[in-house]
Every structure is written in structure tokens, then in C-alpha cells.
Amino acid sequence: LQAYERRFPTCPLIPMFVASDTVNEYKSEDEAIHVIERRCKLDIDAPRLLKKIAGVDYVYFVQKNSLNRRERTLHIEAYNETFSNRVIINEHCSYTVHPDNEDWTCFEQSASLDIKSFFGFESTVEKIAMKQYTSNIKKGKEIIEYYLKQLEEEGITFVPRWTPPVAYKSESSTSQPRRPVSPAINIPESATKEGLNNKEILNSSSSPLEPTAGTPDDKLDADYIKRYLGDLTPMQESCLIRLRKWLQETHKGKIPKDEHILRFLRARDFNIDKAREILCQSLTWRKQHQVDYILDTWNPPQVLQDYYAGGWHHHDKDGRPLYVLRLGQMDTKGLVRALGEEALLRYVLSINEEGLRRCEENTKVFGRPISSWTCLVDLEGLNMRHLWRPGVKALLRIIEVVEANYPETLGRLLILRAPRVFPVLWTLVSPFIDDNTRKKFLIYAGNDYQGPGGLLDYIDKEIIPDFLGGECMCEVPEGGLVPKSLYRTAEELENEDIKLWTETIYQSASVFKGAPHEVLIQIVDASSVITWDFDVCKGDVVFNIFHSKRAPQPPKKDSLGAHSITSPGGNNVQLIDKVWQLGRDYSMVESPLICREGESVQGSHVTRWPGFYILQWKFHSMPACATTNLPRVDDVLASLQVSSHKCKVMYYTEVIGSEDFRGSMTSLESSHSGFSQLSAATTSSSQSHSSSMISR
């Protein structure tokens, strides 16, 4: 055992074993029993692409060691905490004394692997797991012998056997043990969690659960539980009472209702310490942001009321409030540009607060506890436009806030008419969603929701929305394209104390006739990937990419502004010196791309050489008609819209390594369109240059 314990908190002989933390620890008063539970951080040897898709760099396992010095046994249990709803790994090891020779140690080990689903990489995960397990078995004996030798070198060759203390007689060995020595552990909740996993801390003769079981004074009224809380075991009831009592004694301010406290306990498998931590953080957050008063004091902007395609719609068969979201018909980019991320987040918070209120109402109406709601998400119309980077980032932040402050409020999520692009979006957001929440997702492609096991299993026929083939008129807004006239600049949003993603990642630039705007990107490693995302806010521009082996001179900020111009609408920087010649001093690596006013362009370029790359936005002059020297009517009308030969763009660029590219948002085939209709699929046509991806 002493040799084994030296493996922690980390072991240099096991490179994948990065670190470990003690979660729970228990020692009996006579020191015969010692149980320690650790959370281990592992760096699995898996392909980088698989880690990117899974959204994690490390995986966590929980390992519990149960030492019984009286019986001279050591039992080790381990199971995965990461992706436990997709992959179930259980490992059992035991060290015992040989029945015929007390100087011999018997070692037994077994493990099981059950892969339910893993983003389509089930066979790959199985191979990785089997390879890792086989490697561990081969190295296990080598590691234990290494530490035994280390003990011998330190002069430790004999460890006395455990003997009962004088104060303890043999009959007292089965008495109730005292509470754990570690102040962080709380026996009932951890034991309840272990019970859910069909595991026991100790055998029944020395169970630490009995001294802390609920007494008659701790019990809630049975009718109250049945009416408002649902089925609770005595242990769960005790956890609720103790956490509520602790809040009353220590927390200043509004104490949440039992139903809300219960959500946090359920989210942490009734581990009081963990539930108390996240509940206190949430209560502080609610106070800071005045969330308790949001329904009474905040009115959603008209843009949200007109273009946010979501709303409440009756209830499901279980009596849960039903929220309908037509995500495929929603202009997420337009909403972020018009309102900012903070306004969208506040609106989502108001939806959740309304959901809590409706749960209380339905509890009264149906006469049984209803603590969660059902969400129906229609994805018809979802396309690459919805994968706009700042929009996805805003979505991830909203998920993070909701997961932290509204646990166990989602009873069921029905995702209908999922298109081909949906797996990409799911890969991006799923790592941020709690495992318990993911289990509640039901996904239907095409018209599968109309068949057996579909919508009728969860929602009464009379209230199925009309746009899904039902007869019930749904008052949820249809969404649609947010007019660009409602877009606001980052400065305007900042004046209203609303932060926008574009404040930090987007920049504004002005383009003049004869004065293009240029951005310099230095590439050290060939095969890096330059990505871009820009909107043409005013006028038409030509987008170019150039390469040079030598760095251009930094822009001069002289009085004439020949190289750098600052205007209220954005900066203008020119890097390519007028004496430089195309083909001698620099070269063009992409074909010029004409971008019209109002278009959004996203794309990427895989660099072939190190050096300096220049992204250029140049004023686009209207060409004359091919058959005559007279300009076309359309060109004349378009030219009248461009005042003073000035264009404006908002852009964002990023450089990522080629090994990271396939797992990155920016590696998606990008869209370049006027976004004529939300439900239309984006059609693509690649540029002839094989190293770039730009689609229209």
C-alpha cells in the first residue's frame, strides 16, 4: 500500500496521468478502515481531431480506494466522469492476502467498456480505450516494483501489521464510525451519489450513513412533498432541509423556494457541498443583475418582439409548459448586430424566469409538482449563416449562464427537422451542455417527428403548431431577416451599456477611391490558415490577398495622411508602397473577389510559404458596358449611393495552425451571400485556387 500511495497526486511513470485531487476521505476511529476518493485528470493519447470534436483536452476519472487493515484488503474502483452519458467505463482492482501463504499478495483486475454513442467515432474510441487499458496492465507491475525499490532504498523494508488499539475490543470493531476527517466531505450526499451508482463506501457493518439519517424532527409534511416537490427518499428530504436551514442561517437576502433549492441538489446528485456552492454563486449572480425583478422592470426591445422566433405555447402531455423556438427562421446575426449580446442574454433570462412562473402555475392547475418545461426547436431553414462566429460565441455564453443558474429546468428538448448542417452546430455547443441535460434531447431529421415515437408521444394532437402540420395556430413570431437599417455600431451599443462581441473582435475600416485598406499578417509556419469574416457596410469593394517575402514599411501618420487616414467611420491603413511592383516585390495569391454592399463574406486561405500576407479591401469602380462606352443604368444608380467615393467594411481575421483547422469554427465552408431568405439553403461554388475556401 505504501508503494501504491506514492503514485499520487501524479506519477512520472504514467505520462497520461496529469494530476489528481482528493474529493472525499474517511478514516475509522481505530484506523482500520481508510477510504479515499480522488478525481484524476488524464491526458488521453487520442487524435487531435477527435479531441477537438469532443471539445475536451483532458478526461476525468473518479477513483476510490478502500483499505481494510483488519481484513488486509485493498479494493480500487474507477469510473469515468467525462462523457459518462456516452461512454461507461468501470474498472475494479483488488489486493488480498493469499490464503495459503501470508507473504504472498494476490492481485485481480477487471474492467468493462460500454460505448453508447460518440459523435460517430465509436470504433475509434473503443480502440483507444483498449489500447490504453492493455498498456496500463503491462505497466502496472513495473510501476509498483519501482516504488517498492524506492522504499527499500530509503530503508523501509517492513511495515508492521495493524493491531486494534487497547481501548478497542473485538466486539467494538463494528461500532458506528465517526464522521470523515476531511471537512469537505459530507457523508449522506456522497453516499447517496455512490448509491445511485450501485457502489458502497463500506460494508453494512461499518456504514457511516446511519448516524446522519433524517430524524422525525427533520421530516417535511408528506402532503406538501407530494403536492409540490415529488417523490423524495428520506436522505434526499434530509439534504433539502439541511441546505435550506443553512441558507436561512447564513445567507442574507431572499431565500429561494424549496422547488428551486431542489433543482440544485438534483443537478449535483444530492451532494450538499457541491449544490451549496453553485446555489450560492447563483444567488449572488441574481442579486447583482436584479434577475428577480426582470419580468417586472424590463421590456424587450421591439426588434426582439418582431424577429425573435420563439414563444410559449400551451403545455405538453406531462403538464410541462411548452416553449417553441423556430431557430431555423431566426436571423441570429441580425439580432446580435441590432441588439448586442447582452440584450439577447437578458431576453433569454426573462424567458427562463417566465418558465419558472409557469411551472408554479401548472403545479397548481394539475395538482402535482411540475418543476421543468419542454422546449420544441424547429430547425427548418438552419444553414451556414447561423454558424456566424460571434453568433455562436453569444450562444455558448448564453448556454453557460443558463446551465449555471437554471439547472434541472429543462424537462425535455425536442429538436425537429434537423438539417445536414446540424451535426456541425451540435459539435460546437454540446461540450458546454451538462451531461444530465443532454440525456433529455430527442432529435428528429426530416419528417421523422410525424412517425411512431415522434411528436404525438409528447404533445397532444390538438396543440401541435400549424407550421408542423398541426391544427393549432401558433402565435410565435415567424422571425425573418432583421433590416440592416436597425444594425448599430459597437460605439452605439457601448453608449447603452450593452456589450457586443464585435467590440473586441471586429474592426471598422474606411475604403476610399485610390486609398485601399490593408491588413498585415505575418506567417512563420507554412500551411497556417488565415481566416476572415467581414461585412460590406457601404459601397462595393474588391478583396485581394497578397504575399511578400519582405515586410512592408509601417504606415506613416503624416499630416497629409498619405498612408494612414482616421475617420469617424473607421481607420484606413495602406501598407503596399507605391514603388512596389506586383510580381517583383509582392504576388497575388487569390483571385480578386468583388463584394457588393450588404454582403457578408467569410473564408480562409491555407498559406504555402512563410512571410508577410496582406489582406486588401479596394474601392470597386463601376465598369463601363462591354458593347458601348456608356455606363449601364444600374451602375449609375449604384454609384449614386456611394457618397464621396467611400466604402466601409467591418472585418475580423484570425490565424490558426493547420493541425487545429479542421476542428475550428473558421474551417467550415464559408458563406458569401446577401441572405435573401432564411429558409433557403446556401449554395456554394469554390474558387479555383485549391488552398482557399470562399463560397457564394
Automatic annotation (TrEMBL):
<feature type="domain" description="CRAL-TRIO">
    <location>
        <begin position="300"/>
        <end position="476"/>
    </location>
</feature>
<keyword id="KW-0391">Immunity</keyword>
<dbReference type="InterPro" id="IPR036273">
    <property type="entry name" value="CRAL/TRIO_N_dom_sf"/>
</dbReference>
<dbReference type="Pfam" id="PF00650">
    <property type="entry name" value="CRAL_TRIO"/>
</dbReference>
<dbReference type="InterPro" id="IPR009038">
    <property type="entry name" value="GOLD_dom"/>
</dbReference>
<dbReference type="InterPro" id="IPR051064">
    <property type="entry name" value="SEC14/CRAL-TRIO_domain"/>
</dbReference>
<dbReference type="GO" id="GO:0039536">
    <property type="term" value="P:negative regulation of RIG-I signaling pathway"/>
</dbReference>
<keyword id="KW-0399">Innate immunity</keyword>
<feature type="domain" description="GOLD">
    <location>
        <begin position="502"/>
        <end position="655"/>
    </location>
</feature>
<keyword id="KW-0597">Phosphoprotein</keyword>
<comment type="subunit">
    <text>Interacts with RIGI (via tandem CARD domain); the interaction is direct. Interacts (via GOLD domain) with SLC18A3; the interaction is direct. Interacts with SLC5A7 (via GOLD domain); the interaction is direct.</text>
</comment>
<dbReference type="GO" id="GO:0005829">
    <property type="term" value="C:cytosol"/>
</dbReference>
<protein>
    <recommendedName>
        <fullName>SEC14-like protein 1</fullName>
    </recommendedName>
</protein>
<dbReference type="InterPro" id="IPR011074">
    <property type="entry name" value="CRAL/TRIO_N_dom"/>
</dbReference>
<feature type="compositionally biased region" description="Polar residues">
    <location>
        <begin position="200"/>
        <end position="209"/>
    </location>
</feature>
<dbReference type="InterPro" id="IPR001251">
    <property type="entry name" value="CRAL-TRIO_dom"/>
</dbReference>
<dbReference type="Pfam" id="PF04707">
    <property type="entry name" value="PRELI"/>
</dbReference>
<dbReference type="InterPro" id="IPR036865">
    <property type="entry name" value="CRAL-TRIO_dom_sf"/>
</dbReference>
<dbReference type="InterPro" id="IPR036598">
    <property type="entry name" value="GOLD_dom_sf"/>
</dbReference>
<comment type="function">
    <text>May play a role in innate immunity by inhibiting the antiviral RIG-I signaling pathway. In this pathway, functions as a negative regulator of RIGI, the cytoplasmic sensor of viral nucleic acids. Prevents the interaction of RIGI with MAVS/IPS1, an important step in signal propagation. May also regulate the SLC18A3 and SLC5A7 cholinergic transporters.</text>
</comment>
<dbReference type="GO" id="GO:0045087">
    <property type="term" value="P:innate immune response"/>
</dbReference>
<keyword id="KW-0963">Cytoplasm</keyword>
<dbReference type="GO" id="GO:0005794">
    <property type="term" value="C:Golgi apparatus"/>
</dbReference>
<dbReference type="InterPro" id="IPR006797">
    <property type="entry name" value="PRELI/MSF1_dom"/>
</dbReference>
<feature type="region of interest" description="Disordered">
    <location>
        <begin position="169"/>
        <end position="217"/>
    </location>
</feature>
<keyword id="KW-0333">Golgi apparatus</keyword>
<dbReference type="GO" id="GO:0039552">
    <property type="term" value="F:RIG-I binding"/>
</dbReference>
<keyword id="KW-0734">Signal transduction inhibitor</keyword>
<feature type="domain" description="PRELI/MSF1">
    <location>
        <begin position="1"/>
        <end position="156"/>
    </location>
</feature>
<dbReference type="Pfam" id="PF03765">
    <property type="entry name" value="CRAL_TRIO_N"/>
</dbReference>
